[in-house]
């Protein structure tokens, strides 16, 4: 059941007052006060009914009256268009948008956001992920021959001594020199422990023993040693083979004294050779031949294919992210973080860049806001168009209900005042 508001109550009270005044007038037809009270009650009732009719006619047909009633439902298209224009031109007008944007300092807000550790991590990780995904796309074509030619050109421009110095420095910093030496030691140890190496050592010892015997004239002692088995070449070869294997094992141990001594001697000899002019010529020739003969095309293409296969496996969930070229991923992340810090520092210190970035942000946000102006209009139009007549009436009525109630109350009060004034004017005219 609909609840009565104050306007309904005032109209009902006006109707009751009219009935009471009518009864009083019928009871005392010649009473001045009865006539005046009836006249005022009639004015109040007429004013209240007229305003009730006017307010109700905005939303529906009061008492089924068809002419110029239910104005809002009948004019809903015009109302919706007017609402859209009001939102776009008044609430989100171009002038108001730019006025508010001019009071906002976007660059300090951007810098504060970029300085956050969470932002740096998220942006660098997003950039790395984008680069990895770009490698997997078909658009990321890779021309191994062109890349190899560019790499050869770069290598030819680099002096050989500088190249080898840079290579040696990288080997030392990365620890690859130890890894390479250990790998070589393990490979040599496998050969030293083989049967063929044992036979070769025994044959060398036998030959060496014969040469020394012939040169020293000690053939008799040699014959006696062999006859009594004092000198056993097989056992000597086995012992020497074991000693060589032990040395190579020590050489393969990371940071062992032998490994450090060998590397120290290597770098010391490399530094002394770098001062020799004849060695420079030899290195130049070897360097040019090395650059020309390097199988860069095949190596680059295989590396590219391997990279895409590993990244594809990671994206498909077949392997953990940390197992996909961890050194490459770590280096890529490090490069991105360094560039991020450099760009942030440049943005703080370069006034010209700050001005350009600030202007760009203002233009970007202003244009986005202007596009949002049209978008908001479309949204408002769609939302209002989907409302039924009853929902549209309720939407508008709820926003202005207190004012409409007071319009009706004012109609009752104004009708009473006007009737009171007219009654006394008529009485004055009659007399």
Structural write-up:
There is one protein chain. The protein has 431 residues and is mainly alpha-helical. Among the domains are: 6-74 and 387-430, no CATH class; 175-268. The protein has 19 helices and no strands. It has helices spanning 6-27, 32-57, 71-74, 76-91, 94-102, 106-114, 117-136, 144-157, 160-174, 176-192, 195-216, 219-228, 233-252, 257-273, 277-293, 296-315, 326-349, 351-385, 389-430. The longest helix has 42 residues, at 389-430. The two termini are 51 Å apart. Mean pLDDT is 78; it is low at 216-225.
- Contiguous low-pLDDT stretches (5 residues minimum) are 216-225
What can be said about the biggest beta sheet?
none
**Strands, total number:** 0
**Average pLDDT value?**
78
The radius of gyration computed from the alpha-carbon positions, rounded to a whole number of angstroms, is: 51 Å
Helix percentage range: over 70%
List the helices and strands in order: HHHHHHHHHHHHHHHHHHH
Structural class: mainly alpha
Number of helical segments with 4 or more residues:
19
Shape: rod-shaped
In whole angstroms, the N-to-C terminal distance is 51 Å
Relative strand content = under 5%
């Amino acid at each position: 059941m609909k609840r009565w508001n104050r306007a309904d109550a005032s109209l009902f009270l006006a109707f009751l007052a009219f009935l009471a005044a009518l009864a009083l007038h019928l009871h005392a037809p010649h009473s001045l006060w009865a006539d005046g009270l009836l006249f005022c009650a009639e004015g109040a009732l007429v004013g209240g009914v007229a305003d009730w009719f006017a307010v109700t006619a905005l939303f529906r047909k009061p008492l089924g009256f068809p002419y110029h009633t239910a104005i809002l439902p009948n004019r809903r298209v015009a109302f919706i268009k007017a609402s859209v224009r009001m939102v776009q031109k008044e609430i989100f007008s171009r002038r108001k948008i730019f006025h508010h944007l001019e009071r906002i300092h976007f660059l300090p807000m951007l810098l504060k956001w970029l300085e956050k550790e969470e932002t740096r991590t998220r942006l660098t990780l997003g950039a790395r992920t984008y680069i990895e995904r770009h490698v997997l796309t078909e658009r990321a074509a890779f021309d191994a021959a062109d890349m190899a030619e560019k790499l050869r050109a770069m290598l030819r421009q680099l002096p050989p001594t500088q190249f080898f110095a840079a290579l040696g420095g990288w080997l030392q910093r990365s620890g690859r020199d130890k890894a390479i030496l250990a790998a070589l030691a393990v490979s040599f140890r496998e050969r030293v422990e083989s049967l063929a190496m044992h036979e070769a050592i025994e044959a060398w010892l036998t030959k060496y023993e014969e040469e020394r015997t012939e040169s020293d004239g000690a053939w008799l002692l040699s014959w006696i040693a062999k006859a009594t088995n004092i000198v056993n070449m097989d056992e000597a070869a086995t012992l020497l083979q074991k000693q060589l294997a032990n040395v190579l094992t020590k050489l393969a141990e990371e940071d062992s004294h032998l490994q450090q001594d060998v590397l120290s001697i290597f770098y010391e000899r490399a530094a002394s050779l770098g001062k020799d002019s004849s060695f420079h010529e030899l290195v130049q020739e070897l360097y040019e031949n090395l650059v020309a003969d390097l199988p860069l095309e095949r190596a680059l293409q295989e590396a590219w294919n391997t990279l895409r296969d590993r990244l594809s496996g990671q994206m498909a969930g077949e392997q953990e992210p940390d197992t996909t070229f961890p050194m490459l991923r770590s280096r890529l992340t490090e490069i991105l973080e360094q560039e991020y810090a450099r760009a942030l520092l440049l943005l703080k210190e370069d006034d010209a860049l700050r001005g350009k970035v600030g202007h760009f942000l203002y233009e970007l946000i202003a244009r986005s806001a202007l596009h949002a102006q049209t978008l908001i209009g479309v949204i408002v139009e769609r939302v209002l168009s989907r409302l039924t007549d009853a929902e549209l009436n309720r939407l508008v009525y709820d926003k202005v209900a207190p004012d409409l109630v007071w319009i009706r109350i004012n109609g009752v009060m104004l009708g009473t005042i006007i009737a009171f004034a007219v009654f006394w004017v008529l009485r004055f005219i009659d007399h």
